[in-house]
């Protein structure tokens, strides 16, 4: 124990060197690492090269130490260790210090990440980094008009992001370029990559054999600031695929089935590693779909082994050199060792895998298509479908669009179109241009569809929906990845089901949940019965991809002359003030702001949709804190009792009253608290409004880390039944914090009137993270060490 403590302390001490004097050495290391190969990381990073030779050397060091077969996930992860010779490596236990190859941020989360980077005082990002404008475009009329409207409404934010990127050396993808994950797959992902992204669906890059991990903005700041990035060493869950994908079954059905098996928290703390003979029957973009939605089971990320399908995609997207270089290292770095061991193993036979539809309200409630109608009637789900939506970062590839078009053409040959509004979201400008050139967009138009902007749109709640009133019970089907209550349209009565784009298309023709295209017939305009043919489509365009409009802006050689201005009166952007340091005393008599009942995702803690416009203004966006969470006391949302005044009010309003009166508070939650999006606003807002600790039964990975980064104590009940001991009127004391240490439970007193219960609260803080708590935040600690 003493040895481990010394190692952790040494790592904390070395952190200052990384920030201050060691930055030049690290950059020199990156240069030497990449110069071994003359294949560029991407066409936008011509002076940075593939790191395979260096990764292989690091991996040799780890192999000699562990002396056992390694999974593919371990190979990619451990070959990016900052100190492979001395790093403690125990799956599920150790905290790894890693050197990611790049950082990617979407516009909604990039605002806060870049505001934090600006406040760090650093002059330039240390690794290749990009910002992608995809979240702030609201679906309203159609692609071109919606994009023009978004550019006008969000001009201040876009100008801030563009100028900040230019000043600090980041690539900038303009609004209209597409969804971050599709852009990464088309341009930046490569086999063996380690990338972090400020979006929970960053794992999409696993479809090209990279370990791409969703994080909060503060983690991105660490990597951009040349500080080793810390990750608890994941366990590895293997998924062995046998058989072949065919017919109506699609890659989406693999992850829908895995979600049904593992549930929304079954992948927490683990990487999902797909392998087996069935892998080769799945396209590269299909593998990306599977990895993308792995976020819904809490997985750290997901990964496929490098194969010919990936090589074909790389060549088709102009990266044949990367494919050739990857093939040289396929056995050494880019595939699992024979006889490697997984912490858990799941077997899926693709030959017998039935198409699935999951939902509503949670992505792990699986229904085989043969059971969907029966289950819907039994549970009272509205059978009539109101809207069908395909696309999003999960399912917007050329293959997805082509397969859906084949279904639409089949229906139209019998005189049928979509019975309901049918919305199509292309994943990128390249996909939009290519499907337009190849006639696929025209098919959707004739089918009754509307092609939306190349953006996230309804998937994240950016949808100006007009066909139902809030509170009206209705059903929608989407090819998206997430279907939490109110997520798509802010209507808690909308029953959203997630499935493959092929099934969305078929169900949109029938207009009902109890239609099974594998067995049921439709009636054509001529009165004759017919069955839809199984979908088909080209994996890659025969004429190659059409890049469409150029939407990328490279940073200048020097950003010294670039000015980044934030208007103090702005309602969209706000420079950050440091959070207060811990004063060294125990946290006593804390008020319970809210005791949350049931599921509490980051959508419940910090809603998206119309609130996205405030993502760069911490005080304004804090007005949505916990407004979607259910209050244990009255089963209502955004209605809690102010323990100081006795009056009832909205959660943010009561929190502001507490802050103004110097009252510190805690929030109490249930299982898998903070699942879903990577948005760090769900941690920043409680900290900003006076929160000191979050006490729950269990946390989702990204959110727990985000809380630590902002100086909050993320604590879990040692005995989950102690959740019942805390009442809305309780006073909470966290004691002996001066002796806070890794693995040592926190002593807690729960006062209910004259009665005092003493309970234990666990935590996963290591020495470095305890330093963040004491300093008030990770950013505060970074500044201390730099000084």
Automatic annotation (TrEMBL):
This is Aconitate hydratase, mitochondrial. It is an enzyme of class 4 (lyase). PANTHER family: ACONITATE HYDRATASE B, ACONITATE HYDRATASE, MITOCHONDRIAL. GO terms for cellular component: cytosol; mitochondrion. The keyword Transmembrane does not apply. Pathway: Carbohydrate metabolism; tricarboxylic acid cycle; isocitrate from oxaloacetate: step 2/2. Binds 1 [4Fe-4S] cluster per subunit. It comes from Drosophila ananassae (Fruit fly). It is found in: Mitochondrion. Residues 592-719 form the Aconitase A/isopropylmalate dehydratase small subunit swivel domain. Residues 74-511 form the Aconitase/3-isopropylmalate dehydratase large subunit alpha/beta/alpha domain. Its cofactor is [4Fe-4S] cluster. Pfam families: Aconitase, Aconitase_C. PROSITE patterns: ACONITASE_1, ACONITASE_2. The keyword Signal does not apply.
